[in-house]
Design goal:
- There is one protein chain.
- By secondary structure, this protein is mainly α.
- It contains 8 helices and no strands.
- α2 (30-37) crosses α3 (59-77) and α7 packs across α8.
Length: 205
């Protein structure tokens, strides 16, 4: 079949595609996908050339190979898919591009996904992954800054209201615990003491 969905005659000179085995490969190469689309096993002596039984070229199938390869190369350049080619993503993409994928190949890829979903889980592009990493970094940075601000506020209140510089940290923690109880929520003396120590270490930097 060609890239427009026209079925192409099977060429007995070449090995028929073992869709079950290839659907379970962790990734495909571009020329392998092109072979699978026209029903040939990718393990062939001339991956970009199709020969008839009499030794002459098969222009129609050769064009189909190049057409599929061209689609994939363009999609890779425009970041619609990335190498190594995920079989599930690859089949889905080619179908959206109007390529008529053999039903058996589609069925085997679907079966492979059911057997091991993690094997063909969609991947983020490098750009998307980098963006997610940067967002996570900024989120952690904001969290650190927010915590730092709260520690400073806690220490300031402990010093000015609870006289931390004049009393022991245990006495201050006990007084704060009593006030939290009066306010209707209870923070343990131990937790308060731990946070006060963190606040002192943070502000001492």
């Amino acid at each position: 079949m060609n890239a427009k969905g026209t079925k192409l005659a099977s060429n007995p000179k070449f090995l028929p595609a073992n869709y079950k085995a290839w659907a379970r490969r962790p990734y495909w190469k571009i020329h392998e996908v092109a072979r699978l689309v026209i029903g040939h096993d990718p393990v062939q002596p001339h991956p970009r050339k199709v020969m008839l039984d009499d030794g002459t070229d098969s222009p129609e199938q050769s064009v189909a190979l190049r057409a599929v390869e061209d689609i994939l190369n363009r999609c890779i350049k425009t970041e619609k898919i990335s190498e190594p080619l995920n079989p599930y993503e690859c089949v889905t993409l080619l179908q959206r591009q109007g390529v008529n994928i053999p039903d058996e190949l589609v069925s085997e890829v679907d079966a492979a996904v059911q057997e091991d979903p993690s094997l063909f889980a969609p991947r983020d592009s490098e750009q998307v992954t980098a963006l997610k990493d940067e967002v996570a970094r900024l989120k952690n940075l904001l969290d650190e800054r927010s915590i730092g601000t709260l520690l400073k506020l806690l220490l300031a209140v402990a010093i000015r209201k609870y006289k931390l510089r004049e009393k022991s940290i245990n006495a201050v923690a006990s007084a704060i615990e009593a006030d939290t109880i009066d306010c209707g929520f209870n923070v343990s003396e131990r937790a308060i003491r731990d946070w006060l120590k963190k606040a002192e270490r943070h502000c001492a930097k």
